[in-house]
Amino acid sequence: MGVNTNSEKIEEILSRSVQNILPSKDSFKKELLSGKKLRIYVGADATGTKLHIGHATNFMILERLRQLGHEVIILFGDFTAMIGDPSGKDTARKPLTKSDVKKNLETWKKQVSKIVKIGGFDNGAKIVTNSTWLSKMNFADVVKLASNFTVQQMIERDMFQKRLAEKKPIFLHEFFYPLMQGQDSVVLDVDAEVGGNDQTFNMLAGRTLQKIARNKEKFVVATTLLINPKTGKKLMNKSEGNVIGLDDEYHDMFGKCMALPDEAIVSVFTDCTYVSMNEIEEIKKQLAGGMNPRDVKLRLGKEIVKIYYDQEKADKAEKDFIETFKKGGLPENLEEIKTENGKSLAEFLVENKIVASKSDFRRLITENAVSNAVSGEKITDVNFKIHSNITLKVGKKRFIKISI
């Protein structure tokens, strides 16, 4: 398979959902236009069983590069998952066991293959795990690897500076994470890495090591994170109660899209669908012109379901949702109560006399009787905190719209 150097396709890849390219966008574009077959990878640590549409952004870019004819690699971080990436964390991550990681990885290939064409044909993506090489390193190897960086370089990271200011501990093993991710780049001998902008420091470690090991350029493509533009928080967060998983059933996937905050519609269209940017610009104008966000989310839900299932399932999900909605899935005069960000759901429901007590709340949680009224997703955490607008069904008949 030859390399496609179509400048329009390359420009879209380098512009859509991309925050920064290092050392520069122009230099990477020049390589892609050269006709040279590049080796490019995306890594993801197996810290959970589900991948979600926030992860999909990087895999969609990788698939576009694969379609241009480049060699692409998907790295499942089984060894690095056991250490834990400190990126964006105020405290050290809890280490995972080997059995935890193995369980998490069981369905990952199936989930990713819904986006990236993997193996079995010309130029199919290859899957690797970094325990293959990292677990074989001895102490001398680790010391040699660490000698390429200074403590000052590591301590410059924002989250470490924050912890120092707050007098919170920084554990020595957390410095090793970027070294390990950097070693991945060297072992795979890649030309580029695609990852979220919160991974920039780690990806640059690989750039540094590639220069030392092979005097070779490595491009870093830092992508935008899927966040709520109003709150600045990640959209796909378990504590927020609305994670759209790549292996969700199609009707759940559609319902969760309908439950997304209105202000996130354009971001999800951009980062998680194949709808053209020209169409997305038109959608922005329609929303600004007063179009009902619910109608736009119907289109968004269909686009998402179509990627992970097919058009038939997308049409059915829309039809079922509309029928449920018309039949009174939600009451017309929905009760709405405002609260502050981070409020305990248990306290909120007790204070507003929606449940009798915290023990009553725990009983409802145990009985799976509290759920997102739009997506149907059950609230299972008794310590659930309210971080975004959400409509809840409590018990069989009580509906409540909570707004921040």
Task: Describe the protein.
This protein has 3 domains: 7-223, HUPs (Rossmann fold); 238-326, Orthogonal Bundle (Tyrosyl-Transfer RNA Synthetase), CATH 1.10.240.10; 336-403, RNA-binding S4 domain (Structural Genomics Hypothetical 15.5 Kd Protein In mrcA-pckA Intergenic Region, Chain A). Helix content is 46%, strand content 13%. The protein contains 19 helices and 12 strands. The chain is globular, with a radius of gyration of 23 Å.
Q: Summed up, what is this model?
A:
The chain has helices at residues 7-15, 25-33, 53-67, 78-83, 98-105, 108-112, 131-134, 139-146, 151-155, 158-165, 173-188, 200-214, 250-258, 265-272, 277-288, 293-308, 311-326, 345-351, 358-366; strands spanning 18-22, 39-45, 71-77, 126-129, 192-196, 219-223, 336-338, 343-344, 370-372, 385-386, 390-394, 398-403. With 404 residues, it is an alpha/beta fold. Strands 1-6-5-2-3-4 form a six-stranded mixed β-sheet, with helices on both faces.
CATH top level of the largest domain is: Alpha Beta
Number of helices: 19
The CATH H-level homologous superfamily of the largest domain: HUPs
Largest sheet: 6 strands, mixed
Briefly note the structural class of the backbone.
Answer: alpha/beta
CATH topology heading of the largest domain? Rossmann fold
Query: What fraction strand?
Result: 5-15%
Number of domains: 3
| Outline | globular
CATH architecture designation of the largest domain = 3-Layer(aba) Sandwich
Low-confidence stretches: none
Q: Kindly, what is the distance between the CA atoms of the first and last residues, rounded to a whole number of angstroms?
A: 52 Å
Mean pLDDT: 90
Helicity level: 40-55%
Rg (C-alpha, Å): 23 Å
Q: What's the total count of β strands?
A: 12
Q: What is the spatial order of strands in the main beta sheet? A: 1-6-5-2-3-4
